[in-house]
Design goal:
Elements (H helix, E strand, L loop, with lengths): L1 E3 L4 E3 L7 E3 L6 H13 L5 H19 L3 E12 L7 E11 L6 H11 L6 E7 L2 E12 L8 E11 L6 E8 L5 H12 L3 E3 L1
Antiparallel strand pairs: 1-2, 2-10, 3-4, 4-5, 5-9, 6-7, 7-8, 8-9
């Protein structure tokens, strides 16, 4: 889906199994339900989507207060494991634009400074859209309704937006740590579809 920025479009292609939403929508849960209906018809389980999307909607709403969030995507699959509690496999992606910055090197220095006491891996990657700084590591995800935080794997890509003094930040998160390597391959494939035009 192309998203208009002040001077150009940011485009990314998500796999068909992912739902894509506009994070600027007033009611993000309703936006997810609307998108799920577009993909799967009217017989979607609204209560289930609400439960799955609640933490994502809360996090997106928090992010929109501090960055220019322009796109979000969500994947969820429930796997019957034969036990009373099915396995939930989930991941999400968000694209945000930074305020004006002095370039990718300035962003990298800030990332390295912020990550000095973490397990974050910081690398440089060549993507079709250009040179990117990439980070990978573990974070703790929280929600007001949860008694504990949930550990999650995150992968981020930072790319300069051509013609603007801004950086596009592509952020992926999954709480399924046992599947982090598999999801990381999916995240890299999605990052490879990021493009700028206009």
């Amino acid at each position: 889906m192309p998203v208009e920025t002040p001077t150009r479009q940011v485009r990314v292609r998500l796999p068909k199994s992912w739902l894509e939403i506009d994070p600027r929508a007033e009611d993000l849960t309703a936006e997810l339900i609307r998108t799920a209906r577009e993909h799967h018809g009217d017989d979607v389980d609204e209560d289930l989507i609400g439960r799955l999307a609640g933490p994502l909607a809360l996090e997106l709403r928090r992010l929109t207060t501090s960055v220019d969030l322009i796109l979000a995507g969500f994947f969820a699959e429930i796997v019957d494991t034969g036990s009373p509690q099915p396995m939930l496999i989930t991941a999400n992606v968000a694209i945000a634009l930074s305020p004006p910055v002095g370039g990718l090197e300035q962003v990298r220095r800030q990332i390295e400074h912020d990550a000095r006491d973490t397990d974050a891996e910081i690398t440089t990657r060549e993507l079709p859209a250009g040179l990117a700084v990439s980070t990978a590591g573990h974070i703790e995800v929280s929600h007001p309704g949860w008694s504990d935080t949930v550990p999650a794997f995150t992968r981020r890509f930072y790319l300069p937006v051509p013609g603007l003094h801004r950086v596009a930040a592509l952020t992926f998160v999954t709480p399924n740590l046992d599947l982090a390597d598999e999801f990381d391959e999916v995240f890299a494939a999605i990052a490879g579809t990021l493009s700028f035009s206009g």
